[in-house]
Design a protein that fits this description.
It contains seven helices and no strands. It is mainly alpha-helical.
Length: 129
């Protein structure tokens, strides 16, 4: 399991640095490196956090399926660029810290971000990836 998980995590990270990608999941760069190399396996809570934050199912990360459908039924074919994940995290952090938006407005913003990610996955220039 560690090998499949590590390979998928590394591929998903893309060109983002390990430090930046690890910060998104609140883990150290060293721990991310160990996960990607298959030296260790993720805890159940980390695995669930990764699935939640990436909208890709735990089954996919564990190598049980190549189908990553989750959260709203979006089909994840290939991988969403890590840049989108990091940008989403930064926007969500700003929204939480602003305190001026209602919870409904924050929920709507999350849905908009998810739709943007989905649109990027469906864009013609990404069709071959």
């Amino acid at each position: 399991m560690a090998d499949v998980f590590g390979e998928r995590l590394k591929k998903y990270r893309g060109k983002k640095s390990q430090s930046e990608f690890a910060a998104f999941f609140n883990i150290s760069q060293a721990h991310l490196s160990s996960l990607e190399c298959g030296v260790c396996e993720p805890s159940v809570s980390l695995l669930q956090q990764i699935a939640d934050k990436t909208s890709i199912s735990v089954s996919y990360w564990l190598g049980e399926t190549d189908d990553g459908v989750m959260n709203g039924g979006y089909q994840v074919q290939g991988y969403m660029p890590a840049e989108i994940i990091v940008a989403q995290a930064q926007v969500l952090k700003m929204l939480k810290e602003s305190g001026t938006m209602t919870s409904d407005e924050r929920k709507l913003m999350r849905e908009v971000l998810a739709a943007c990610s989905h649109a990027l996955d469906e864009s013609p220039e990404r069709a071959d990836k």
